[in-house]
């Protein structure tokens, strides 16, 4: 596959490139080697610097006073950037943790932080394991074949996060549809519509749903995460409707497609590397390492962005104040300088200093939960799995933000 550095840079802003792992990684490998701090001008997008080396992603994430999340926390088209800017100015834009910087970010993050600490998450493990078992049982009920993404992996993490939030099971299907419409992003099959108005319509539905939830938890507090958010105070004042809703939205969305993509991409990697599957089945103690290798391998979050507040020198390039950088996590996680043989899927990889959860003050709040969920699923599945193979061609999601497989047809036999 012959590709110029210019084409490789533009691939970062091409949703289709992310649906084709080989094409994406050919582009990222070329950028890491030839131009790791690359100025990219892609049609339909405001220009940005593409940051593809592990060390550089880390350096930028560490320096959260120079590199801010606002006003452009993730890659969007120039039209969408403009809409976001206008909405932010009018105070009606989505304002979640990833849209914020200090001091607001620190205060708002603290509201959810206790809930997501590893110790608190471990207490939830029995409930998560029960859900994992339910989905492995579902595979058995489905017989000897299924589309693993559509029938298993999109449901399980959403159910985990919605039960953490404390929503009734009867609302789960509606939430699944809404999160996919919002996060399906650039994939025409998942997204509700083309226009910003249609995207706004999905957001408004989310808002209406969660406003009701806030009202209910304020009237009658419970011990779930929704109640913690609804009744949180900052400087003695409750959060306004907008901020509470933004909090629910980020948790319901961030906690869903990320983990489901990891589980389906992890299973795909095990199918493609039967020696690694056997190794893991023979030595279940490797599971924690295997989970992190799946997360590195899939890197379901494709990028976040930062914007420089002052001029900054990086590898001889000058990033000017006001210019934005795209931090490419899939690229950092295949960096030859950090990972021994980075294109080898190794369930015993140790050390594994991947950046799939980001780094620094915005480090993924749900990392401990994502690890427990993934581990619980494979710990339930692997002892029962006698055989597994592909039953068709897997298909990737076209998105520049969060995604992985949208179809994984498999044939299997379970004990
Ligand atoms: C932020 C990845 C699962 C909640 C992030 C970031 C990344 C990430 C890359 C941005 C970090 C940065 O800017 O440095 C992932 C991956 C997951 C996963 C790879 C699964 C394998 C989850 C889950 C939840 C969650 C299960 C919650 C239920 C969040 C939240 C933030 C975040 C709330 C914003 C944190 C902040 O800005 O302070 N995640 N995530 N994530 N994630 Fe995750």
Structure characterization notes:
With 415 residues, the chain is α+β, with helices and mostly antiparallel strands. It contains 19 helices and 14 strands. Strands 1-2-10-7-3 form a five-stranded mixed sheet, sandwiched between helices. Helix 11 packs antiparallel against helix 12. The longest helix has 24 residues, at 196-219. It starts with a helix and ends with a strand. Residues 61, 97-98, 109, 161, 250-251, 254-255, 258-259, 262, 295, 300-301, 304, 329, 356-360, 362-366, 369-370 line the site of protoporphyrin IX containing FE.
Short account of what is shown:
The protein has 415 residues and is of the alpha+beta class. 51% of the residues lie in helices and 12% in strands. Helix 8 crosses helix 19 (367-381), helix 15 (257-272) packs across helix 17 (287-298) and helix 17 packs across helix 19 (367-381).
> Mean pLDDT, nearest integer?
92
Low-confidence stretches: none
Biggest sheet strand order reads: 1-2-10-7-3
How would you characterize the largest beta sheet?
5 strands, mixed
User: How many H/I helical runs?
Assistant: 19
Ligands bound, unique: protoporphyrin IX containing FE
Distance between the termini: 43 Å
Q: Structural class of the helix and strand makeup?
A: alpha+beta
Tertiary shape:
globular
Count all strands and give the number. Answer: 14
